[in-house]
Every structure is written in C-alpha cells, then in structure tokens.
Amino acid sequence: MGRAEIEAALVLLRHLGVSPSDLAAGDAGAGTAVPTFAEFVPQVAATVSAGTLKAYGSYWNRVVDAWGSRAIDEPTPLEIQQFGERIRSSRTVRRNGRDGRGAVENYIAALRCLYRRAVANGLIREADNPAIKVAKPRRLPSTRRALPDARLAEISTVAATTGDDPELDSLLLRIHLETACRRGGALKLRPMDLDEQQCLIRLREKGGTERWQPVSPTLMAHLQEHVLRRGAPHDGQLLRYRNGRPITYRRYDGLWVRIGRHLPWVATQGISAHWLRHTVLTWVERNFGYAVARAFAGHTDARGEAGSTTTYVRADVQEVAGALAALTNEAHPAASI
C-alpha cells in the first residue's frame, strides 16, 4: 500500500471517529456477551472482602434495582452522575452530614470498583469505562478535632455508669484511647493476638494491614480478664457480651447514642470512636513528632502519604511504646529495650 492510500485510509478513519489504536486493540469483549448489572454485581460481590462489600453493597443493590436488566456497558457518564444526585437527594440526613458528599463519593467508588473488574475481564475497554469519567465530589476538610481532657473524662464517666454493660463499654473506650485503632481493628482482635509478656496486641485493620501495637499493663490485664470471663475462644473474636456473643458495630452505635443523651454536645457534634483516634494521634504528634504519630496510627506508604522522605522518618515499636508510656503514665516493657 502506497503513501497516498495510507493517507486516504487515515482520513476515512478520522471521519468515522476511529483511531488506529482502536483497530489494533480490536473490539474488546467481541464474541462475549456483556452481562447485565443483575448478573455482574453478584459475581463481583462474591470476590471482594467483607469490608468492601459493607462499604459498597448498598450502592450496588440500588444500581441493580434501577438498572438490573441493562448491560453494564449501557449507562453513560451523564446517567451515572444523575443517579448519584438521586442518591444524594434520597439520603438519610444526619447531624454530621455534609450535603450528601460522602454518599455520592462512595457510590462513584462502588461503580468504579465494578467497572475495574469489567475491564480486567475483557468485558469492556478501559477507554469505555464510564465510571472513571465521573468526578467524585471534592472532599471537605474534616471537622474532627482533638478533645480536651475534661471532655474525655465526661465521656468515660457516662460509659462507666450507664447502660447494660459498663464494663464492656469502658474497655472499648480504653482500647481506643491507648491504641488509636479504628473500630474494625478492635472488633477483629482475638485472644491469640495478645502478647501478654511484651504488652503488645496485633491489630488488623483496613487494607489488610497488620501491626503490633503497645498497650499498658493495665489494659492488657483487663483484656485477659475479659477473655476469661466471657469465654472468647483462642482464635475467635475477643470482645463479647456477657452471654458470650461477639459484639458488632452496633455496640458502638448504641454506645455513642447513649452518651449523646447524657452529654448533648456529643450528639450535636457527632462525636464517635474516630474522634478518640484523632485525639490520641494529635497528642502523640505534638509531644513526640510526626514519625512516632505516623507509626502509632499504623499509617503506611500508600498513596496520599508525604512522599519518599517518610522512608527516613519511620519510628519503631519501641518509640511508640515510649509515647504510650507517657500517655498512660505506666511503664512499658518495650519502651526500655
């Protein structure tokens, strides 16, 4: 084929809106039926982690309800954006809500999760992924802040003097106030994760991360006592009700609702366990610096971190134990190593 013929062919392709790369890639998924949302969503749901399913499952269900019979390559970016606005307008309005930004952000993330798997399995081309073409709402700065000691004392007093299981609620608060862990980390704690001799607990948190976190001798003793009294199996969930049944996120929800009834400022500001994490890490950063606070929090080198400099400012478990010793005013065996 001569140069003139090639130029003519390129002109024709441009006229048809087709690029040479489109021809080279071929029609992705040719010969393969593109599934409907009703068919594809259950397949994806069966492959993701429990945490991902908890975060995205409700949005996938709404998409199936609305678009179940449609092929996954049918919705346009505009339709996806419009559906997000429907989710925003029908959301449950909460005191700490931010105009539905979180709901729309999670919905778009849920669809991107679906379409990433569709691309990976050759059902659609990357260039035809409609979810990636819809921008997430800009995330606003967090309104959380460190709580002063007097406010923490009020919260602890209410937890320890009200409710049907003050012993459990006080233990929950102490875990978070010493380790700054997330709720998921506390709920995944098992008796086999307790290193009594070194006063360390193994925390397993989001993203499949694991770390050994120092705790005070007093907290370790309470955890061991809780295991014995409530019959937690060695490889099962540690935190349990008096009848031996494992607790869930509902215990946290009920705890903060109850504290909010006694302390109106807690309800008004939407205080939760994550505020305790914020409080502890702020104190550690102010007193021991960024590196120790970062290690205390269990942060990794994932995207969004400060950059390659963090390679040289990592703190170890001994430094975290030193910060904990100062926080709790109790000596820690790892801090003196």
TrEMBL record:
Domain Tyr recombinase: 142-325
Entry-linked Pfam families: Phage_integrase
Keyword ATP-binding: no
Tagged with keyword Nucleotide-binding: no
Keywords (A to Z) from UniProt: DNA recombination, DNA-binding
InterPro entries: DNA_brk_join_enz (IPR011010), Integrase-like_cat_sf (IPR013762), Integrase_catalytic (IPR002104), Integrase_recombinase_N (IPR010998), Tyrosine_recombinase_XerCD (IPR050090)
Family assignment from sequence similarity: Belongs to the 'phage' integrase family.
Descriptive protein name: Tyrosine-type recombinase/integrase
Species of provenance: Hamadaea flava
Lineage of origin: Bacteria, Bacillati, Actinomycetota, Actinomycetes, Micromonosporales
